[in-house]
Design a protein that fits this description.
elongated, 3 helices, YuzI-like, transmembrane helix, transmembrane, membrane
Length: 70
């Protein structure tokens, strides 16, 4: 049960981080280069939610897989 909750929290974090990453793509047509976009991404904490969410989901899936095989 705890691993399913961990998966759902990771899913929510990855969705919010992914949406933020997509929203910040609007800076590119405004005149910034892709390198400037990556520099901006490094300073925004909500963009790290995507990576942290993927990590949590991977951990939860690994733990769920271990418990389901008997």
């Amino acid at each position: 049960m705890l691993h399913a909750l961990l998966f759902l929290v990771g899913f929510g974090l990855s969705i919010s981080g992914g949406v933020s990453i997509i929203l910040y793509l609007n800076f590119i047509p405004a005149g910034l280069s892709f390198l400037d976009y990556l520099i901006i991404m490094q300073t925004k904490i909500e963009c790290y939610f995507f990576l942290f969410g993927i990590l949590l989901m991977g951990l939860a899936l690994q733990r769920l897989k271990v418990f389901s095989v008997k």
